[in-house]
Amino acid sequence: MQDRMGCYLLGQRGIDKWLSGRLKLESLLDNLAREWASLPTFNGIGYYSGQNASVSVMQVTAALSEVKRLHEAGQPKIEVPVVPEAVDKAVKQQTDGWGWSGIGIAGGLVALVVGLSIIRRVKAIRAEAAT
Question: I need a labelling partner for 72 at 20 to 30 A (CA). Which of 19, 42, 51, 96 fits?
Fold first, then answer.
Protein backbone atom coordinates (compact mmCIF):
# COMPACT_ATOMS: atom_id res chain seq x y z
CA MET A 1 0.00 0.00 0.00
CA GLN A 2 2.89 2.34 0.80
CA ASP A 3 4.35 1.83 -2.67
CA ARG A 4 1.00 2.53 -4.32
CA MET A 5 0.55 5.68 -2.27
CA GLY A 6 4.11 6.75 -3.09
CA CYS A 7 3.44 6.30 -6.81
CA TYR A 8 0.28 8.36 -6.47
CA LEU A 9 2.16 11.16 -4.72
CA LEU A 10 4.92 11.06 -7.36
CA GLY A 11 2.23 11.47 -10.00
CA GLN A 12 0.72 14.40 -8.15
CA ARG A 13 4.12 16.09 -8.07
CA GLY A 14 4.77 15.67 -11.80
CA ILE A 15 6.82 12.50 -12.37
CA ASP A 16 4.75 11.61 -15.46
CA LYS A 17 5.21 15.07 -16.94
CA TRP A 18 8.95 14.86 -16.28
CA LEU A 19 9.20 11.41 -17.84
CA SER A 20 7.46 12.70 -20.97
CA GLY A 21 9.73 15.75 -21.18
CA ARG A 22 7.05 18.30 -20.26
CA LEU A 23 8.55 19.23 -16.86
CA LYS A 24 12.10 20.32 -16.09
CA LEU A 25 14.16 18.33 -13.61
CA GLU A 26 14.56 21.45 -11.48
CA SER A 27 10.79 21.78 -11.13
CA LEU A 28 10.35 18.10 -10.34
CA LEU A 29 13.00 18.26 -7.60
CA ASP A 30 11.31 21.29 -6.04
CA ASN A 31 7.90 19.58 -6.25
CA LEU A 32 9.22 16.40 -4.63
CA ALA A 33 10.85 18.42 -1.83
CA ARG A 34 7.44 19.87 -1.03
CA GLU A 35 6.02 16.36 -0.66
CA TRP A 36 8.92 14.72 1.16
CA ALA A 37 10.78 17.03 3.53
CA SER A 38 13.89 14.83 3.50
CA LEU A 39 14.44 15.52 -0.23
CA PRO A 40 16.32 18.64 -1.34
CA THR A 41 15.10 21.33 -3.69
CA PHE A 42 17.12 21.94 -6.84
CA ASN A 43 19.24 24.36 -4.79
CA GLY A 44 20.24 21.56 -2.40
CA ILE A 45 18.32 22.75 0.65
CA GLY A 46 15.09 21.55 2.20
CA TYR A 47 11.90 23.21 1.01
CA TYR A 48 10.57 23.90 4.50
CA SER A 49 12.43 26.40 6.67
CA GLY A 50 14.62 24.69 9.22
CA GLN A 51 14.35 21.36 7.40
CA ASN A 52 17.62 19.86 6.25
CA ALA A 53 17.49 17.49 3.33
CA SER A 54 18.93 14.12 4.26
CA VAL A 55 20.19 13.32 0.74
CA SER A 56 21.97 15.33 -1.91
CA VAL A 57 20.59 16.65 -5.18
CA MET A 58 23.06 14.32 -6.92
CA GLN A 59 21.60 11.27 -5.13
CA VAL A 60 18.02 12.20 -6.02
CA THR A 61 19.01 13.00 -9.62
CA ALA A 62 20.76 9.62 -9.92
CA ALA A 63 17.68 7.81 -8.62
CA LEU A 64 15.42 9.74 -11.02
CA SER A 65 17.79 8.99 -13.92
CA GLU A 66 17.44 5.28 -13.17
CA VAL A 67 13.65 5.63 -13.04
CA LYS A 68 13.73 7.36 -16.41
CA ARG A 69 16.02 4.73 -17.92
CA LEU A 70 13.73 1.91 -16.76
CA HIS A 71 10.65 3.80 -17.92
CA GLU A 72 12.07 4.39 -21.40
CA ALA A 73 13.25 0.79 -21.69
CA GLY A 74 9.71 -0.42 -21.05
CA GLN A 75 8.02 1.96 -23.48
CA PRO A 76 7.24 0.97 -27.06
CA LYS A 77 9.17 2.93 -29.65
CA ILE A 78 6.75 4.79 -31.88
CA GLU A 79 8.01 6.38 -35.04
CA VAL A 80 6.06 9.46 -36.01
CA PRO A 81 5.78 9.69 -39.79
CA VAL A 82 7.23 12.80 -41.35
CA VAL A 83 5.52 14.34 -44.33
CA PRO A 84 8.06 14.45 -47.18
CA GLU A 85 8.97 18.01 -48.13
CA ALA A 86 7.81 17.53 -51.72
CA VAL A 87 4.37 16.34 -50.57
CA ASP A 88 4.09 19.20 -48.08
CA LYS A 89 4.95 21.73 -50.78
CA ALA A 90 2.48 20.19 -53.23
CA VAL A 91 -0.31 20.22 -50.63
CA LYS A 92 0.32 23.88 -49.85
CA GLN A 93 0.29 24.74 -53.56
CA GLN A 94 -2.97 22.87 -54.20
CA THR A 95 -4.69 24.33 -51.12
CA ASP A 96 -3.77 27.96 -51.81
CA GLY A 97 -1.29 28.03 -48.95
CA TRP A 98 -3.68 26.68 -46.29
CA GLY A 99 -1.60 23.54 -46.05
CA TRP A 100 -1.87 21.26 -43.05
CA SER A 101 -2.43 23.81 -40.31
CA GLY A 102 -5.03 26.06 -41.85
CA ILE A 103 -7.92 23.63 -41.95
CA GLY A 104 -9.04 24.38 -38.41
CA ILE A 105 -9.28 28.13 -38.86
CA ALA A 106 -12.69 28.15 -40.54
CA GLY A 107 -14.05 25.79 -37.89
CA GLY A 108 -16.96 23.35 -37.85
CA LEU A 109 -18.36 22.04 -41.10
CA VAL A 110 -16.14 24.19 -43.30
CA ALA A 111 -13.05 22.68 -41.66
CA LEU A 112 -14.39 19.20 -42.27
CA VAL A 113 -15.02 19.91 -45.96
CA VAL A 114 -11.62 21.55 -46.42
CA GLY A 115 -9.98 18.68 -44.52
CA LEU A 116 -11.58 16.08 -46.75
CA SER A 117 -10.50 18.09 -49.78
CA ILE A 118 -6.91 18.14 -48.55
CA ILE A 119 -7.00 14.40 -47.89
CA ARG A 120 -8.19 13.77 -51.46
CA ARG A 121 -5.45 16.03 -52.82
CA VAL A 122 -2.76 14.33 -50.71
CA LYS A 123 -3.90 10.94 -52.04
CA ALA A 124 -3.76 12.27 -55.59
CA ILE A 125 -0.26 13.69 -55.03
CA ARG A 126 0.92 10.36 -53.59
CA ALA A 127 -0.58 8.47 -56.55
CA GLU A 128 1.20 10.81 -58.99
CA ALA A 129 4.48 10.46 -57.08
CA ALA A 130 4.23 6.66 -57.17
CA THR A 131 4.03 6.63 -60.98
Answer: 42
